[in-house]
Amino acid sequence: MLIRIGAVLFTLLSQLPGTALAIELPEGFIDEAYISGLDGQITGFDASAAGRVFISEKAGIVRVFQDGQLLAEPFLDINEIVNDRVDRGMLSVAVHPQFPLTPFVYVLYTYDPPELVSNGLEGPGTLEGNGNRVSRLVRYTADPARDFNVAVEGSAEVILGRNSTYEAIGEPEGRYNTTIPSCGPISDPTPDCLPVDEDSHTIGAMRFAEDGSLYVSNGDGASYRSFEPLTEMALNLNSLRGKILRIDPETGKGLSDNPYFDGDPDSNRSRVISTGLRNPYSMTIHPLTGQPYVGDVGEKQWEEINGGSSKNFGWPCYEGGEGGNLRQPGFEPLDFCQALYQSSEEIEAPLLSWEHLESGSSAMVGDFYFGEAFPSNYSGMLFYGDFIQGWMRYADVSDPDNVTSFDFASDMQPMTEIRVGEDGALYYASIITAEVRRIRYIGEDGGGESPEPEPTPEPGPDSTDNSSTGEGAVEVGAVSILWLVSLGLSLCLFRRKRSCVNVAETDQ
Questions:
Q1: Which residues fall within 8 angstroms of residue 477, CB to CB, at 6 or more apart?
Q2: What are the residues whose beta carbons fall under 8 Å from the beta carbon of 354, sequence distance 6 or more?
Q3: Within its chain, how far is the Cα of 286 from the centroid?
Q4: What one-character-per-residue DSSP string does 62-113 give?
Q5: 393 in a domain, yes or no?
Q6: Has residue 1 been placed in a domain?
Q7: Strand runs labelled E in 84-241
Q8: Which residues are CB-contacts of 37 (< 8 A; sequence separation ≥ 6)?
Q9: In this structure, which long-range contacts are made by residues 18-23, counting pairs with CB atoms below 8 Å and at least 24 apart in sequence?
Q10: Between 20 and 30 A from 328 (CA), which of 184, 298, 340, 435?
C-alpha cells in the first residue's frame, strides 16, 4: 500500500522543535508561546476553570497551568487504561462551567479495560493494541485540599459509555476487525456504548453549552480501509456512531428537548442531536444560538465544517461538495445508500468544504469570535483550520446559503484545538512543539474594512475516483497525521507510553 507521505513528512520535519517558525498573520497580529514545557502530545485544553488551564495529553494525562506556571504534578494520570494507538487516546478535556464550586473535570478517551492486561492483550507495541476497543467519557472531582489542581483518588464516574466494557468489545485481539463490531451488531446496537473498531474515527470533543448541557462528538468507529455495511450505523439513530450527542453532564442521559428524544433518557437516540458524520474530531458551540459545529475529517477528497441540530450530514452516502452534497462513490452502490437517495430525507450540506491537496487535508473547527480584542470585522466569525495544510481562516456562517470565508493565517504548525480566551486572544494547541500558543492583536484599535473574501474553490466533478483508501494512494487525515510525530522515523520523542506504530499503518 502506498502512502502519500513525502510532502507531509517534509512539512512536519521542517516544524520540529528548534526549527524557525514562519507563521503568516494579518498586519497587527502576533503569534507567541503561552504554555510551554509539556512532555506529551496536546490534544485539547479548557481555560474556563477560574484562572486555570486544563490540558489533555493523548497518552492519558491532564496537566494544569495556573498563575503563569505549568504545575509539576498532573491533575490526572490514567495512562494505564488509555489506549493511545495512532488516532486513539485521550482526545478532549472539559471543565464544569461552575468550577470550582462544582469541581468536576471531564475527560474523553479510548479505553483499555483491565481485562486486557490479564488476558495478555494490552501492552507497548503489541499487535493486539490495535484490536477493537470502546471509549468512555469520565468525570473526575478536583480535590479542594489540593487547591483543585489534583483529582480526588477514586472519584472517577463514568458519564457516557457505562456499557463500554471489556464484554462489549467485539474482538479485542483482532486487528482492525469490524466483522464482529463492538457495542452490538448493526441490527441491535448496545445502549450507552461507544465503539472503536479502528485505530481512527474514535471519540472526538466535548463542549459545554450556555444552558449547562454537555455536547460530545463521536466518530463512526468503522474502517477507513474498506466500504463496509457497518458504516451505515453513522446514519442509525439507535447507534452512537458518527453522531453529535447532547447529554446531562451529571447523569449522561439524553435531555427531553433533544430532537430525537423517545421518552427514554437512557436510549441512544435520546442522546443524539445530529447524525451522519465520519470523524468529527473538533467541535464548538455557538455562544448565542447554542448550536453545535464540527470539523468532520473527510476521506480521500473532501473536508467539511458542519453545523446545526436535527441534521443528517449524510456520511457515508454523501461527502463534501461546495454548495451541496456529492454522493460518496465507494458507498453509493450499497443498499442503505440507495435507499437514502430514494427517500425524501433532507441531507444537510456542509457549511464549508474544501478539496484535498496532494499532502492531504484535515478539518479543524475553532470558536466563534465575540471578543473585543480583535478589530470589529472579526465579530461573530467562526475560526477554522486545516491541520495538515497549516492554514487558519474565519467565516461568516450566519446565513448557511451565503457563507463567506477569509484568510487569516498560513504556515502554521499542526494544531489540535482552537479557542477564544476570556482576554479576547485566540489560543491553539501545537502538537509539534507541545505548546499552547496565543495569537494577539497589537495593532491600532478599531475595525476597518474586512479583507477581500478568499475565492471559494470550485467543487470538483462528481468523480468516482475519490473513494479508495485501499490500493493506491491513502490519505493521512486529521488525527492520524497528528500522531505522525509519534510514528517511525525517530519522531517518537513526544510519546509517554507504548512503542511507535509503523508508519505504513497510518491512515484516516
A1: 200, 224, 279, 297, 298, 360, 361, 362, 388, 507, 508
A2: 302, 303, 322, 361, 386, 457
A3: 17
A4: EEEEETTEE-SS-SEE-GGGB--STT-SEEEEEE-TTTTTS-EEEEEEEE--
A5: yes
A6: no
A7: 90-95, 104-111, 133-141, 157-160, 194-196, 203-208, 214-218
A8: 70, 434
A9: 21/411, 21/413, 22/411, 23/409, 23/410, 23/411, 23/412, 23/413
A10: 184
Nearest Cα residue to 365 out of 401, 297, 414, 418? 418
Residue type, 44: G
DSSP line for 310-366: S-B--TTTB---TTS--B-TTTTTSHHHHHHHHS----PPPSEEEE--TT---EEEE
Number of domains in the chain: 1
pLDDT digits (tens, 9 = 90+) for 232-291: 999 999 999 999 999 999 999 999 999 999 999 999 999 999 999 999 999 999 999 999
Please state, in angstroms and rounded to a whole number, the distance separating the CA atoms of residues 356 and 462: 14
Q: What's the length of the chain?
A: 508
> Distance between CA 220 and CA 124 in Å, rounded?
26
DSSP string for residues in 427-492: EEEETTTTEEEEEEE-S-SS--PPPPPPPPPPPPP--SSS---SSS-----HHHHHGGGGSTTT--
CA-nearest of 234, 193, 243, 191 to 336 is 234
Are 306 and 296 in contact by the 8 Å Cβ rule? The answer is yes
Name residue 134's beta-bridge partners. Answer: 111, 195
Residue 435: C-alpha distances to residues 33, 41, 70, 431 (Å): 7, 9, 11, 7
Give residue 293's domain range. Answer: 6-505
The whole-model pTM stands at: 0.86
How do residues 402-445 score in pLDDT, each as one tens digit? 999 999 999 988 889 999 999 999 999 998 889 999 999 999 76
> In this structure, what C-alpha cell is assigned to residue 490?
525517530
Indicate the pLDDT class of residue 225, thresholds 50, 70 and 90. Answer: confident
> Which residue matches cell numbers 480521500?
300
Radius of gyration of the chain from its Cα atoms, rounded to whole angstroms:
21
314: alpha, beta or left? (left if phi > 0; alpha if psi -120 to 50) = left
Residue 411 forms beta bridges with which residues? Answer: none
β-partners of residue 20 are: none
- Residue 202's identity, in one-letter code, is T
C-alpha distances out from residue 151 to 62, 75, 160, 475, 494, Å: 10, 6, 19, 39, 24
CATH of the domain at 139: 2.120.10.30
Establish whether the linkage from the previous residue to 185 is cis, with ω within 30° of 0: no
